[in-house]
Give the backbone structure.
Amino acid sequence: MNTTLQVRIDEKTKRRAQKAFKASGIDLSSGVRLLLTHIGRTGEVPQDIFTYDNAPASLMKQIVREADYAFKHGKRYTSSEELHREILGKK
């Protein structure tokens, strides 16, 4: 049995979502259905849709752990030029 879902959203966000879904070959309704089906099946909201301000505590802990590790063990550079040379593979 199907049911109807009504969502109020600003026009700009709706247009952007329609454009993104269209690029994937689906319409807005199918995109919303896809998202809700994924959440219903996995019990999880895709992580990449969270912002820093509304991320779950478990994701925030992981981010902090990774940042702490990078701060303690990451490579240091004396200048931005040195960093750019390494990125570009130049000596």
